[in-house]
Write a structure and sequence with these properties.
Helices cover 82% and strands 0% of the residues. It is mostly helical and 199 residues long. The chain has two domains: 1-52; 88-199, no CATH class. α6 packs antiparallel against α7 (169-198). The protein is globular and about 60 Å long.
Length: 199
């Protein structure tokens, strides 16, 4: 995204290039899936002996709700995930409005968001590897509380900056910087929860 936004002269041309890349990537994914399905039947729902695997009937909405309500562990996980989703979405609304104010030009905004996405991806890749060790050595509770704790600690300076006022360019730049850390760090540390679920 940063590459296309840097090369393009208008946002429309950037959008066309990104759309083309997404379409090509989608076709490549479908092609890879077809190769796996044809050449590796075991991955496509059959056993190595050629017998079809028995498919479990998917639970309906009501059955899923009952199953979720009957498990304290799943209830806690669901509460954690929903709470995280609501918190990060509300924070992103405020942060993105500040980013748009600092980068009113669509191309500049695209460059910034592209760099942001790359940074989050890199950080997540790193955290995934250390997340399993956090759970292993410090336990499930610490792993589950890592993301909420980081969100809480980083929210204090971000919202303090906003409450103090962002009338000047300096304060706006500071608010955007704090918001970027506030939004990106929880996304990356969510890898600890992912490693936890797999364990």
């Amino acid at each position: 995204m940063v590459h296309y936004a840097s090369k393009a002269t208008t946002f429309q041309s950037t959008l066309h290039r990104l759309t083309t890349s997404i379409v090509i990537s989608g076709i490549a994914i479908c092609g890879c899936f077809e190769v796996v399905r044809v050449w590796y039947p075991a991955a496509g729902g059959t056993t190595p002996g050629g017998e079809k695997k028995k498919k479990k009937e998917p639970l309906g909405m009501l059955e899923s709700a009952r199953f979720l309500a009957g498990s304290p562990y799943l209830r806690l996980l669901a509460t954690l995930v929903v709470s995280y989703g609501l918190t990060i979405n509300f924070t992103e609304i405020i942060w993105k409005s500040l980013v748009k104010k600092q980068y009113p030009d669509a191309l500049e905004y695209s460059r910034f968001m592209g760099s942001f996405s790359s940074a989050v991806g890199g950080a997540t890749f790193f955290v995934i590897f250390i997340g399993g060790n956090i759970i292993k050595h410090l336990g499930w509770r610490v792993g589950a509380l890592t993301t909420p704790a980081i969100m809480t600690v980083l929210a204090v300076p971000f919202f303090t900056c906003i409450l103090m006022g962002i009338g000047t360019d300096k304060m706006l730049t500071l608010a955007v910087a704090l918001g970027t850390v506030q939004v990106s760090a929880p996304r990356a540390t969510k890898g600890c929860g992912g490693a936890n679920k797999s364990g």
